[in-house]
Design brief:
CATH architecture of one domain: 3-Layer(aba) Sandwich
Strand content: 15-25%
Largest sheet: 7 strands, mixed
Helix content: 40-55%
CATH class of one domain: Alpha Beta
Shape: elongated
Number of helices: 28
CATH superfamily of one domain: HAD superfamily/HAD-like
Strand order of the largest sheet: 15-27-26-25-16-23-24
Length: about 750
């Protein structure tokens, strides 16, 4: 998919800004993301930017004053890179990450193999002949070849006055190695002072090995968190068969253009969005609609990328290709959501940004304190503790705590037909205590159908009246008219010519034939033209209204000829979903533009006590504000353009997937399926994700709060314990892996 395709330019005063998302390479910790973000933001012409460490991407809003190549060069100057000007940057990033993973895997294995003999000699055979020289020979390639990236990245950061995790590792391993080299060649310096010349070659080597293991596991885990995107991208075939001059030809999907005629065979995935031109088949659209029953496709039917053809074959014309297909929009939505930051992450980013300098300061303070207050081994202890502080204080666990949980949570949502556009909505979802539901298309099916058609007995005129009703309704654009024509089609009613047709806003329609007037509409229309309503029809109409059905009358200039009951059926799952929300302590409200009686009947059927009828679109947004003024966290669920204002106003906005494009654009969450049960599931997902984030942050903070003082030698005055830098490296690696592992547990949650 084209991830670097610009969105609509954003005009700001005299400048036009473009917002694009680019993959980032070379980031190894959360502080790296801070460095990349700050260098991009500092580039002239960049209005704003955000970098996400977990999914290795950056979104940049920039003007025409700067080119993306200039931004890329600025990023490269501190040791990172943006993937730009390639056909498929996401795929290019995947390939680079795979190469990086394989190279990291080789370096890690070699570092472990070389570290084992160093550790054995350092711990059990430290007095063996030439032991220090052997350890130095083995540790040199580990530290300066296999661990060279730590030093090169630290240098590039230092040039810009920045520091990250690589700075800590480079300082700790470099100091430990140089101190050990000095003690190897100038051991008499210590012997003359009655001290043993300790070497820490094993610590330097094992730190590189352990951190490499942690990074390897981290890379593996991060690739797992983006599996939802990979699954979505896998729904699109690589090649397609097009028909040109009556002949079939196979081409790559990237070469498909609008207007191409494509052929789809049984079992094939549909490659792009389009319209059927020839053939009949059934298509499994569950990945878009959530409905398990395949949909029949005939000439003129719409088909969508990623859906699966069943038994038949058909040809269709490509209408939306590349990044414009529904599948591409879904993928982009998931990618952007996984790269977005919830409010809690902004605080974590600030902490991670100052964390490394603070740790370096603590390490220096630890060294000075040991030199001033230490015993005859003060220098050795000062060096040991300061190196341990530098190694154990890893910001990776802190930086990974939020984004990994967000990524897995959004991926979990995508698997369950819940598309989350913004991480903030995922964070707020668990706080929702009031939820507003639109009626039509949300609680109900959104498609009116005729449930009753009752005619007054008019003898020989009855067929003509049916033909007139059918003919007038075929000219009407009202949604209810289609329901009436559909039921009359079943009786094979034919249309007859109509002389005049007039639509009367809010009431119905007026038509004439051969000088006779006919009306189709509500009771207000009948009253306005003083049409007498038959008592039998009126009795039935009253009962239908109690059952939440809309009543439409058909009449001539004097009396009603028929009464029609039209209902928008309540979805089978609506009552269950509303009860689940209420059981969770959430106040549920229904807003509808329909009349009070219909609203009351629907509310009674689904178990609602809070509802408002005859509500205008602007009133919906005002009602959201009213609830917010009461201190409630409000979620709005809707599907139409008329809901868009209220969706934008709500704290958490949820669009039904079969609704309008505008509603889905405004909403922060989109339910691909029309099942209202997905709403409580979305809120549950939010709760589970936030719980995971809190657990991650707790362990990341506790780890550093306990680890740094212990590494500094706080326990030494009490029990003589000093933390070996080698153990500190292992603990640091374990902390990052444990945070990622805890986030991955979200995949097992049942919604």
């Amino acid at each position: 998919m084209e991830t670097t395709k610009p969105t609509t330019p954003i005009k700001d005063k005299m400048n036009i800004f473009h917002k694009q998302t680019f993959p980032v390479t070379g980031m190894t910790c959360a502080a790296c993301a801070i460095s990349v973000e700050s260098i991009i933001k500092a580039t002239e012409g960049v209005k704003d930017a955000g970098v996400n460490y977990a999914n290795q991407s950056a979104w940049i809003e920039y003007s025409d004053e700067v080119t993306i190549e200039e931004i890329q060069n600025r990023t490269r100057s501190i040791g990172y890179d943006l993937i730009v000007n390639v056909e498929d940057p996401f795929q290019a990033q995947q390939e680079q990450q795979q190469k990086h993973y394989e190279a990291l895997k080789r370096r890690t294995i070699l570092a472990i193999l070389l570290s084992i003999p160093i550790t054995v000699i350092g711990m059990f055979f430290m007095d063996m002949p030439y032991g220090n020289y052997i350890m130095m020979a083995l540790s040199t390639p580990v530290v300066f070849y296999l661990g060279r990236s730590f030093f090169t990245n630290a240098y590039k950061q230092a040039k810009h006055g920045k520091a990250n995790m690589d700075t800590l590792v480079a300082l700790s391993t470099g100091i430990a190695y140089l101190f050990s080299v000095f003690n190897t060649f100038f051991s008499e310096f210590w012997h003359e002072r009655g001290l043993h010349a300790h070497v820490y070659f094993e610590a330097a080597a094992v730190i590189v090995a352990f951190i490499s293991i942690g990074k390897l596991l981290e890379e593996k885990a991060k690739s797992n968190t983006s599996s939802a995107i990979k699954k979505l991208m896998g729904l699109q075939p690589k090649t397609v068969t097009i028909i040109e001059a009556g002949k079939e030809r196979e081409i790559p999907i990237a070469e498909v253009v609008i207007g191409n005629i494509l052929i789809v065979k049984p079992g094939d995935k549909i490659p792009v969005d389009g319209e059927v031109t020839n053939g009949i088949s059934f298509v499994d659209e569950s990945m878009i609609s959530g409905e398990p029953i395949p949909v029949e496709k005939t000439k003129g039917g719409k088909v969508f990328a990623g859906t699966i053809n069943q038994k038949g074959s058909f040809e269709f014309k490509a209408e939306k290709v590349g990044g414009d297909t529904i599948l591409a929009h879904i993928i982009k939505m998931v990618q952007e959501a996984q790269g977005s930051k919830p409010p809690v992450q902004k605080l974590v980013d600030k902490i991670a940004g100052i964390f490394v300098p603070v740790v370096i300061g603590i390490a220096i303070l630890t060294f000075v304190a040991w030199m001033v207050l230490g015993t005859e081994n003060a220098l050795t202890h000062a060096l040991l503790t300061s190196v341990s502080v530098l190694v154990i204080a890893c910001p990776c666990a802190l930086g990974l705590a939020t984004p990994t949980a967000i990524m897995v949570g959004i991926g979990k949502g995508a698997e369950n037909n819940i598309l989350i556009k913004d991480a903030e909505s995922l964070e707020l979802g668990h706080k929702v205590n009031a939820i507003i539901l639109d009626k039509t298309g949300t609680i109900t099916e959104g498609k009116p159908v005729v449930t009753e058609l009752l005619w007054k007995d008019n003898g020989s005129d009855s067929l003509l009246h049916k033909q007139l009703l059918y003919s007038i309704e075929t000219q009407s654009e009202h949604p209810l008219a289609e329901a009436v024509t559909e039921v009359l089609k079943q009786d094979n009613i034919q249309s007859v010519p109509i002389d005049q047709f007039e639509s009367i806003t809010g009431k119905g329609v007026k038509a004439s034939k051969e000088g006779n007037e006919f009306f189709i509409g509500n009771q207000k229309l009948m009253d306005e033209y003083k049409v007498k309503i038959d008592s039998t029809l009126l009795t039935h109409a009253s009962q239908w209204q109690k059952e939440a059905k809309t009543v439409v009358y058909f009449s001539n200039a004097k009396e009603t000829l028929a009464a029609i009951a039209i209902a928008d059926k309540v979805k089978a799952t609506s009552k269950e979903a509303i009860k689940t929300l209420q059981d969770n302590g959430i106040d549920v409200y229904m807003l509808t533009g329909d009349n009070q009686q219909t609203a009351q009947a629907v509310a009674t059927e689904v178990g609602l006590t809070h509802f408002k009828a005859e509500v205008m679109p602007s009133d919906k947004a005002l009602f959201v504000k009213e609830l917010q003024a009461q201190g409630k966290v409000v979620a709005m669920v809707g599907d139409g353009i008329n809901d868009s204002h209220a969706l934008a106003q709500a704290d958490v906005s949820i669009a039904m997937g079969k609704g309008s494009d505008i509603a889905m654009d405004v909403a922060k969450m989109t339910l691909i399926t029309s099942d209202l049960n997905m709403v409580p599931k979305a809120l549950k997902l939010s709760s589970k994700t936030i719980t995971t984030i809190k657990q991650n942050l707790f362990w990341a903070f506790i780890y550093n709060l306990i680890g740094i003082p212990v590494a500094a030698g706080l326990l030494y005055p009490f029990n003589g314990f000093l933390l070996d830098p080698m153990i500190a490296g292992a603990a640091m690696a374990l902390s990052s892996v444990s945070v990622v592992g805890n986030s991955l547990r979200l995949k097992l949650v049942q919604l």
